[in-house]
Write a structure and sequence with these properties.
Elements (H helix, E strand, L loop, with lengths): L3 H5 L5 E10 L2 E11 L4 E5 L6 H7 L10 E9 L2 E2 L7 H7 E4 L10 H11 L6 H14 L3 H4 L12 H13 L5 E5 L7 H14 L4 E5 L3 H7 L2 E6 L2 E7 H6 L4 H7 L5
Parallel strand pairs: 3-8, 3-9, 6-7, 7-8
Antiparallel strand pairs: 1-2, 1-4, 4-5, 9-10
Helix pairs in contact: 4-5, 4-7, 5-7, 7-8
This protein binds adenosine-5'-triphosphate (ATP).
The site of adenosine-5'-triphosphate (ATP) has 13 residues, from helix 2.
């Protein structure tokens, strides 16, 4: 094996090739190929219903939970096919964590929300190490100072923005390699949104990050690469600065200038 740090900056963490997704007869994703690396936050943008969330969910097999959903094509994580029968899906979802639109902490204490994953994955051999994982995850999620004196309070009693950072801490606690965020700020006020955006900046480089957003200003602020989706296809993928200032495709230009969507 090559040194991890040397490979991650040059090699794709995840690659999708000709991915198609069907809901029953209906095709929602029509052959998408993309490479995701560790160095860049990737934003998925596009009008409602274009397939951003559907494609995002293929990256950690969340679509397995939708009985009528079917995926074709190849998706690899460090070169390994995540749809192969030998892939442990529970393990995959720890490696490729997900943060949802609506903060969804468990109805448990702040501590237990973060400790849950490390416990089920056996990551901490004793209480002291578990305490350390919980603290480090909350620090990294920018929440530690606000909750360190009330770790036994319920996670659901936190503000919406704090709950979302708790969900990010919960994802971080199992030491993921990729974090998928599906409109993580859509239920938050502007101050809580700014904190999550700041956090995304801080997490960049340590994890590969993909964020679905409706908010083009947000995509421009947090990402270095942007993929524009339209009607189930990925129309354009490139540097965020190019996509927003000098897109190659007319459909991208129309969308970013507000002509539709
Ligand atoms: N569980 C499902 N069952 C059937 N069809 C679905 C399901 N989820 C999504 N779809 C359909 O797949 C297409 C893509 O939806 P998806 O939610 O991925 O788009 P999106 O770009 O994320 O939209 P939005 O920005 O509104 O969240 C849509 O036509 C949608 O109706």
């Amino acid at each position: 094996m090559l040194d991890n740090t040397a490979t991650t900056s040059t090699k794709s963490k995840m690659s999708a090739r000709d991915v198609k997704v069907f809901y029953g007869e209906k095709q929602a994703i029509k052959g998408v190929s993309i490479d995701i690396d560790m160095d860049n936050v990737v934003a998925f943008i596009g009008p409602s219903g274009c397939g951003k969330s559907t494609f995002l969910r293929t990256l950690n097999r969340m679509n397995d939970t939708i009985p009528i959903a079917r995926v074709e094509g190849d998706i690899t994580l460090d070169g390994e096919n995540i749809y192969s029968s030998s892939m442990d899906v529970v393990q995959l979802r720890a490696r490729v964590g997900m943060v949802f639109q609506k903060p969804n902490p468990f109805p448990k204490s702040i501590y237990d929300n973060v400790a849950y994953g490390p416990r089920i994955h056996g990551l901490a051999p004793n209480k002291a190490e578990l305490d350390q994982i919980v603290e480090n995850s909350l620090v990294r999620a920018g929440l530690w100072n606000e909750v360190k004196d009330r770790l036994q309070d319920s996670g659901t009693a936190l503000s919406g923005g704090q709950q979302q950072r708790l969900c990010i801490a919960r994802a971080i606690a199992v030491d993921p390699e990729v974090i998928l965020m599906d409109e993580p700020c859509s239920a938050l006020d502007p101050i809580a949104t700014a904190k999550i955006e700041e956090l995304i900046h801080e997490l960049r480089g340590r994890y590969a990050i993909v964020i679905v957003t409706h908010n083009m200003q947000q995509a421009a602020r947090v990402s270095q690469k942007t993929a524009f989706f339209h009607l189930g296809t990925m129309v354009e993928y490139g540097d965020t600065s190019d996509i927003f200032t000098n897109p190659r495709e007319e459909r991208t230009r129309d969308y970013i200038t507000g002509r539709y969507g």
